[in-house]
Structures are given as C-alpha cells and as structure tokens.
Amino acid sequence: MPDTAIVTHDAPARRRGTETRQRRLQVLVRLDEAEERLLGERAASAGLTPSDYLRQAALGPVARVRLPPPDPRVESLQRLLGELGRVGNNVNQIARALNVALKAGETPAPDGAAIADAAVAIKRIEREILATLGVEEMQPA
C-alpha cells in the first residue's frame, strides 16, 4: 500500500465560512511531518492556504484565495505574549511557594531577586509592545 492514502467523503455538517458551504467534499491525504512542513512552507510562499495550494496543484488555478502578507507587528506581539506568559508562570510559582510556606506555618522570605527579575521583564515587554504598536511610553504622573 502506498504512503499516501486518499479518501473522499462528505464533509461534516459543521459549517464555517463561504468555502465550506460551497465545497462540501473532503479529500484526506496522509503526510509525514517533513511533508506537512514542506507543504506549509510552499503554500505560505505562494500566499495560499495549504488547501488552496493542493487544490491548485491538482486542478490548476481554480480558486485564488491569497493570504495577506504576515504582519511583522503581529509576529512580534505573539512572541511577546509568549514571553509574558513565561513571566506570569514564574510569578505564579513564586506565589505558590510563598503560600505553601505560609500554610506550613513558616515565615517565608520572598525571593526578592526573582521578583525584581520578573518586574524588569514585564517592564521590558511593555516597552517592546508599545514600540511595536508605535505608541510612546507614558510617563508616570
């Protein structure tokens, strides 16, 4: 049996967007990770979704749904959001350790260095977000 199996069937009843209503049949293609990555790269470089890229490769230019070029600001904000999540996780771990110590009847000494590092990271992320958005940093009143 070949690596790639193609099965055609009716799409599920879930409807999203015009394309789903117009195209109700699906063709499933099995790919390994390298093939999926290559398909994604080629589709992105053509400005198409992977579905549109495969449709055009198989049928010719039937439908042309071009993706807008990626906005570097969005990519930057996504990266900063991830960083902010990591800082929040660190702050949560500090709070959890303090709460465990308090419940055990201990008088914990907060990790001042870790808290200061988190505050510095949050301020840096805030400045980067404002710079990405083209907003001047507001000075405290």
Biggest β-sheet strands, sense, barrel = 2 strands, antiparallel
Strand-pairing-aware structural class: mainly alpha
Beta-strand share of residues: 5-15%
Q: What strand order characterises the main sheet?
A: 1-2
Number of helices: 5
Beta-strand segment tally: 2
Question: What order do the helices and strands follow?
Answer: EHEHHHH
Question: What is the number of independent domains?
Answer: 2
Low-confidence segments, ≥5 residues, pLDDT <50?
none
What distance separates the N and C termini? Answer: 71 Å
Helix fraction bin: 55-70%
Query: What Rg is obtained from the alpha carbons, in whole angstroms?
Result: 25 Å
Overall form = elongated
How much is the average pLDDT? 81
Key descriptive features of the protein:
elongated, NikA-like, Plasmid mobilization relaxosome protein MobC, 5 helices, two-stranded antiparallel sheet, single chain, 2 domains, 141 residues, mainly alpha
Could you characterize the architecture of this molecule?
By secondary structure, the protein is mainly alpha-helical. The chain is 59% helix and 7% strand. It has five helices and two strands; from the N terminus they run βαβαααα. The protein has a two-stranded antiparallel ribbon with strand order 1-2. The longest helix has 32 residues, at 72-103. The radius of gyration is 25 Å and the shape is elongated. The model has no long low-confidence stretch (mean pLDDT 81).
